Amino acid sequence: MPRPLALAAFIAVVLAGCGGGADGTTGPSGAGLRIVAGAGVTDTVMSRPVQALVVEVRPTSGSRAGLVVRFQSLPADSTRPYEPAIVVSNLASSFFGPFISDTTNASGRASVLVQLGTIAGEARILVTCPELGFADTAKFTVLPGKLDRVVVRNRDTMVVAGATYTIDAYASDRFLNRRSDPVTFAPGANTASVDPSGRVTVATTVGRGNVAVRAGTALDSARFTVLPSGTMAFFDATGGTVTVSTAKLDGSGRKRLGSTVTPSYPNISPDGSLVVYQEPAGSAVINLVDASANKRLLTTPATMTWAYYPHFSGDGQWVFFSGLAVGDSIAAIWRIHPDGTSLTRVVDLNNAPLTVNIGIAPDGSRIAYSENYQFTIMQVSTGAKVPLGAGGTFIEFSPDSRRVAYLGGGYINVVNVDGTSPIKIAAGRVQDDAGLAWTPDGGWLLVRGYGGPLLVNAATGEVISLPFPDFYQFSATR
Fold first, then answer.
1. What angle do CA 268, 270, 275 make, to 5 degrees?
2. Distance (Å, rounded) from C-alpha 124 to C-alpha 84?
3. What is the largest CA-CA distance in the chain?
4. How far lies 136's CA from each of 70, 422, 450, in Å?
5. How far apart are CA 13 and CA 391, in angstroms?
6. Which of 239, 274, 284, 456 is the most buried (most CB within 10 A)?
């Protein structure tokens, strides 16, 4: 038959966790550990109940006095590991901590003072008498403190023009414990509407917006950035897997279309169904891939010595690129149908740098390219040229074909196609080797900054940072 002490220890293990004023762990003839007073209290964060937590140890035999009783605060929330749910102190001290011990008096009782912690919910103190193997748990209920603030969990959101999203907000005490106070919402800048549940419909104006969020006297705001609608093609290094990808401008709907290496400078067709991109420097290959990741070659080493910077025409019927044909000594701008037919020389590139950046006007009226180490805009119908008097990289026509933007001199340069009204924006903010694109509305430019991609207002230079650090080499949005 088991010895009484061993049996008491066994029962202690089985019953561990009961408490809150219950009889606790007991053995034969009532032996065990019992919570006498002080448990089961409900109060707000940081409260100190006047009543001490008192426990009583009943050994099976021998004196009740002088037994060590340990009081250990148990963790309450794994997401807040450094905040105590409850702390304890001896009766003669004002220092509270997660652990303390006491020895039983002649009645077998031990006591500690309790202070509730900063985490609302259930708080527990594990009480043990290691010498006898007894244990029990004292439980408390911690309520949130008084209203202190509104917590907006999605404080900054990217959303496409005209779309909706829901604000995640709640009232809290100073320790961020959720309270039940009602939260209300009021539309602010660039907000079309917001309903009582916090569902926001954003306006169609690209830029910043906000909604006021209130709970009682507490006030905060939910901020959002309205992005243009459209799809972008880009070099995607997310997660260490390098691909040509497409996505909406808010980063949603990302689709990996094919592996690549840098630089690839992908360019999306006007209807978003196709992407063309180059192989890395020194290659003669232009690739085309569709939305189902089916890939084919538009140029090969059999036809081109090198081929770079592919661009769809505004109607999607042609892919333009700069290249040197096999057997030629002069590079040219070429075009080819997306099915690989009708390779045609468009204009020779005399005195042009190797790997010429080009731009194709969406309306088909003009071509921009480097000549004599400065950008030239040529009218296709007449061959008339407008030299811009400056060089750079990644020249791109606006959607209305009336302006061009290019990188150079530490700026984004924007100028009319006749060379008038030049402006410089985003000084020192952009990388000049990572591509440039206009948004479909013609109001903004998508470019790579030093900390990630940026939207830059083409008129004012306002800069919006986008949360896609591994997206590079933007070349077009449609």
1. 20
2. 10
3. 113
4. 11, 79, 58
5. 80
6. 456
**Bridging pattern class, strands 231-236 and 243-248:** antiparallel
Instruction: Say if residues 160 and 440 touch (Cβ distance below 8 Å).
Output: no
Domains of the chain: 4-143 (2.60.40.10), 149-227 (2.60.40.1080), 231-477 (2.120.10.30)
Q: What phi and psi, each to the nearest 5 degrees, are found at residue 122?
A: -80, 135
* 46 Rama class: left (phi>0) / alpha (psi -120 to 50) / beta: left
Euclidean distance between CA atoms 154 and 134, whole angstroms: 47
Residue 424: CB atoms within 10 A of its CB come to: 14
Q: How far does Cα 118 stand from its chain's mean position?
A: 29
Rounded to the nearest angstrom, the gap between the alpha carbon of residue 409 and the centroid of all alpha carbons in its chain is: 31
The residue written with tokens 């148990």 in the block is: 74
Q: Which two tokens stand for residue 385?
A: 């040229």
Contact 123, 79 (CB under 8 A): no
Over residues 165-173, the mean pLDDT reads 97
pTM over the 0.85 mark = no
Q: In angstroms, rounded to a whole number, what is the distance separating the alpha carbons of residues 363 and 348?
A: 21
Q: Comparing 265 with 185, which gets the higher pLDDT?
A: 185
Alpha carbon distance, N-terminus to C-terminus of the chain? 84
Give the model's confidence band at 80: pLDDT under 50 very low, under 70 low, under 90 confident, else very high: confident
Q: Which helix (H) or strand (E) holds 109?
A: strand 109-116
How does residue 447 score in pLDDT terms, banded at 50, 70 and 90?
very high
Work out the number of other CB atoms within 10 angstroms of the CB of residue 5.
16
CA atoms of 47 and 45, how far apart (whole Å) = 6
CA distance 298 to 381: 26
- φ and ψ at 99, to 5 degrees? -150, 140
Which helix (DSSP H) or strand (DSSP E) does residue 5 occupy?
Answer: helix 4-15
Tokens of 131: 């010498």
Six-digit token pair at 300?
């090969």
